[in-house]
Amino acid sequence: MLSSKDLSFWTACASALQPAAQAYIDGRLQDAVDGRQFASICPHTGHTIAMVARCAQADVDLAVSAARRSFEGGDWSRCHPRERKPVLQKLAQLLRDNADELALLDCLDMGKPISDALNIDVPATAALFDWYAEACDKLYDEVAPSGPDALALVTREPVGVVAAVIPWNFPLDMAAWKVAPALAAGNSVLLKPAEQSPLSAIRLAQLASEAGLPDGVLNVLPGYGEEAGQALGLHPDIDCLSFTGSTEIGKRFLAYSAASNMKMVWLECGGKSPNLVFGDCADLDAAARKAAFGICFNQGQVCSASSRLLVENSIHDRFVEKVLTEMAHYQPGNPLDPATRLGSLVDAGHTGRVHGFIEDGVRQGARLLAGGERLRLGDSDCYLQPTLFTGVTPQMRIAREEIFGPVLSVLRFDSEAEAIAMANDSIYGLAAAVWTDQLQRAHRVARALRAGTVSVNTVDALDPGVPFGGCKQSGFGRDLSLHALDKFSQLKTTWISL
Ligand code: NAP
Ligand code: MG
After folding, report:
1. Is the residue at 470 inside a domain?
2. For the chain, which terminal residue's Cβ has fewer other Cβ atoms within 10 angstroms, N or C?
3. Nearest alpha carbon, ligand 1 atom 35
4. What is the three-class DSSP state of 423?
């Protein structure tokens, strides 16, 4: 059945698509208060997909009022946790029922291959809502040890009104990473998608209403960061703000909080994740396959992309050959073609920025072994060849800064200690990977790496039940797993004198 969904099928779907593009406030679609709009542009055609409501302060105020009203009303915040479960489960099912449309929205909005959107993003999003639905009625509170004259209860309460500001690289997944646990914990939520990819978030909110979520509990505010995003950051009646995006903007949210109401801020920011391949790794083919995946998946626009490949000198040349062979399987193509593995980058500006890093690598003396070219396919020049540099030294910009594109920097090392030092020489600490067949080395290196997640003999391992997040300037707080609920709930201590 899937095979009938070929390029012509998706092209026809794309031209028939009429996405909802208004803000979603208090259970209904509405225009921005001042009527302004912005264009949501498809990077692989250059066409405007829709004119989208450009929310700003007045819209944020409206949405915060709706969220606060719903939270105080208690239909969601104080219902039995058992009643939240079927709503989130129904939403998961509706996501699956509308998978083609949702996959298409993200594919058109930010250029990811339709196969990835359909086979990875949408099912993962649905699975996440199911996961938190199941958690709703299985969490117990605590009774603290106390003397004979007292009872001390420690109970979890929703924090109240939660804002989520998210990036464009996984529009639907990132929305779910915030919205699913925040809703499961009983909060009312305001979601600001990235300006490049607002459409699937709006559809998500519509489906949530269809699933039975009360009005005002999930609101979506498309718009610009400096307008809608900043208004959320500074709003005095938002209790908690969860952000995923760049380190630069993450820092601004800390300042917004300090300048306003001291709202809790949780940050998932950038990365420059090291992938360490030791000479004792028995399966260099698998390591090469994953190294290529780790930099090419989603066009390299992944916060935890394995963008620094650290290779032991004894296997360097042999291993780089294998990686080159694997990377050649990711050739840029039309994202609507189910055969495409590498789509377009998110927009022309970002493509130019990534290409600038490539030019910089060449200028600084790194050796360009593959790729390097910006390509035009059809009407779009938002494509880049998968690119590999060897001879990269730790001081080069391509070794230090987050590129957020399919550009791999290969560095060499002689000893375990050197590899660890090089890996940790970064302002970031999101993810890391280690390839070795020595059990002791695997554990030793995993312990020594400063990263939120270390994957051994794979890259970028991920599961809804396992926490994800960073240290250093990759941020703090954890998405996914039961730990995400810590961000969206507060502990209440109740002492009862006996
Ligand atoms: P970004 O520029 O930091 O934007 C993220 C969000 O913040 C967007 O919704 C953006 O709105 C908003 N924003 C921008 N400027 C703002 C301002 N002055 N005040 C308030 N909000 C503002 O990041 P991006 O380019 O979308 O995404 C790429 C970055 O996200 C990379 O650094 C990547 O590593 C990171 N990321 C991290 C994770 C993780 O889990 N650690 C996951 C995915 C991505 P606009 O779209 O309107 O600018
Ligand atoms: Mg777009």
Report:
1. no
2. N
3. 245
4. helix
Checking phi first, is residue 434 left (phi over 0); if not, alpha (psi -120 to 50) or beta? beta
Contacts of 421 (CB under 8 A, 6+ apart): none
Rounded to an integer, what distance in angstroms lies between the CA atom of residue 76 and that of residue 274?
42
Q: What is the DSSP letter of 304?
A: T
402 CB within 6 A, ligand 1: yes
Q: Which atom of ligand 1 is nearest to the CA of 475?
A: 41
Q: Which ligand is nearest to the CA of 168?
A: 1
Q: Which atom of ligand 1 is nearest to the CA of 224?
A: 47
Domain membership of residue 308 (yes or no) is yes
Candidate from 197, 234, 243, 249 with most ligand 1 atoms within 8 A of CB, to mutate: 249
Please tell me the distance between residue 277's alpha carbon and the centre of ligand 1 in angstroms.
31
Q: What is the CATH number of the domain that holds 283?
A: 3.40.309.10
CATH number for position 122: 3.40.605.10
Say if 314 falls within a structural domain: yes
Q: Is the CB of 269 under 6 A from ligand 1?
A: yes
CA of 250 to the centre of ligand 1 (A): 8
Do 220 and 83 lie in one domain? The reply is yes
Question: Is the alpha carbon torsion for 154, 160, 166, 170 positive or negative?
Answer: positive
Residues 377 and 479 in one domain: no
Is residue 307 domain-shared with residue 431, that is, in the same domain? yes
Q: Is 288 in the pocket of ligand 1 (CB under 6 A)?
A: no
Q: Are residues 325 and 232 in the same domain?
A: no
Q: Write down the residue that tokens 């593995």 correspond to.
A: 341
Alpha carbons 497 and 447: distance in angstroms, whole number: 45
Q: Which domain holds residue 395?
A: 274-465
| Cβ 92 vs Cβ 133: under 8 Å | yes
268 part of the active site: yes
Same domain, 240 and 279: no
The predicted structure's pLDDT at residue 1? 47
pLDDT in tens, 412-471: 999 999 999 999 999 999 999 999 999 999 999 999 999 999 999 999 999 999 999 999
Within a domain: residue 392? yes
Using the mean position of ligand 1's atoms as its centre, give its distance from the Cα of residue 167 in Å.
4
344 shares its domain with 388 = yes
Contacts of 1 (CB under 8 A, 6+ apart): none
Residues 372 and 242 in one domain: no
pTM: 0.97
Report the number of distinct structural domains present in the chain.
2
Choice among 142, 157, 210, 268 that is catalytic: 268
Residue 411 CA to ligand 1 centre (angstroms)? 28
Handedness of CA 462, 464, 467, 470 (dihedral sign): positive
Pocket mutation for ligand 1, best pick of 224, 244, 466, 476 (most atoms within 8 Å of C-beta): 244
pLDDT in tens, 224-241: 999 999 999 999 999 999
